[in-house]
Design a protein that fits this description.
globular, binds 3-methyl-2-oxobutanoic acid, 12 helices, alpha/beta, 13% strand, eight-stranded parallel beta barrel
Length: 293
């Protein structure tokens, strides 16, 4: 009787090898600025565990967001409001370990969850330190206006910050639901003012969620030092982000209109993520006629 050859890795599966693409360089803030200057779009996806993060990295995703959307995706919550800092650190740690194991290059962003940065800039710093000790290179905080001094406080202390305007899911109850933001002139003007304040405070990145494509495109031109990353914000932003499970066609609720199911035509998860990266880089996703407002 022959014994089957031992396979490397754990009995439960191995992480994929690092992509052999020769141009892979560690992603950093200067590298993202170079990409922007060269007109190359930034591809971002969420991930919540080691294996998906390693696959996303190998498929060419530059930025991995450990989003508090994990509350819905991984924990079965009805919103992100109940996600704790402890849970965020747990997932950040797994993602960071997964990317390191394959010698990955992705820039790792972690969401500061609801309540972990609202009390004071000092509280935000304590929370950011915990998330960075778990592997984050940058933290994301939602909202404008009151957040600008907090962003400045963090940036001055060496914490890179990604801001988040438009639909800010942590305040879904105050907003009255998951709806498009910045639609009328007054709302667009407020969003523009907040975005400029956040850039001025040192935010190096800004997620724009569910805002009209025209507004997102014009904000992108007005924010040369803050890379706009759109989700349901049209193709005019510096980069795009989607929730991983959505773009793989796995959404337990109603699929948002701005999502495309990349798994439909791909033979594998890696194939689907590669197709997403390609479509973002080529300006094929999002298609403003289908995915934007
Ligand atoms: O939590 C998250 O996944 C996010 C993205 C939707 C941008 O904030």
């Amino acid at each position: 009787m022959t014994t089957p050859a031992a396979t490397p890795g754990t009995p439960y599966g191995t992480l994929p090898p690092a992509s052999p693409l020769p141009q892979r360089r560690p992603i950093s803030l200067p590298r993202l600025a170079q990409m922007r200057e060269a007109g190359e779009k930034i591809a971002m996806l969420t991930a919540y565990d080691a294996t998906f993060a390693a696959v996303a990295d190998a498929a060419g995703v530059e930025c991995i967001l450990v989003g508090d959307s994990l509350g819905m995706v991984c924990q079965g919550l009805s919103s992100t409001v109940g996600v704790t800092l402890e849970t965020m650190c747990h997932h950040m740690d797994s993602v960071s370990r997964g990317v390191r194991r394959v010698q990955g290059t992705a820039w790792l962003i972690g969401d500061l969850p609801f309540g972990s940065y609202h009390e004071s800039p000092e509280q935000a710093l304590r929370s950011a330190v915990r998330l960075m000790q778990a592997g984050a290179h940058m933290v994301k905080i939602e909202g404008g206006g009151w957040t600008a001094p907090t962003v400045r406080f963090l940036v001055e202390r060496g914490v890179p910050v990604c801001a988040h305007l438009g639909l800010t899911p942590q305040t879904v109850h105050a907003l009255g639901g998951y709806r498009v933001q910045g639609k009328d002139e007054a709302a667009a003007a407020l969003l523009r003012r907040q975005a400029l304040e956040l850039q001025d405070a040192g935010a190096a990145m800004l997620v724009l969620e569910m805002v009209p494509a025209k507004l997102a495109a014009s904000l992108t031109l007005e924010l040369p030092h803050c890379h706009t990353i759109g989700i349901g914000a049209g193709k005019g932003t510096a980069g795009q982000v989607l929730v991983l499970h959505d773009m793989l066609g796995m959404n337990l609720g109603k699929m948002p209109r701005f999502v495309h199911d990349f798994m439909h035509d791909a033979g594998s998860v890696k194939g689907a993520i590669e197709a997403y990266v390609h479509a973002v880089k080529q300006g094929q996703f999002p298609d403003d006629a289908v995915h934007a407002w």
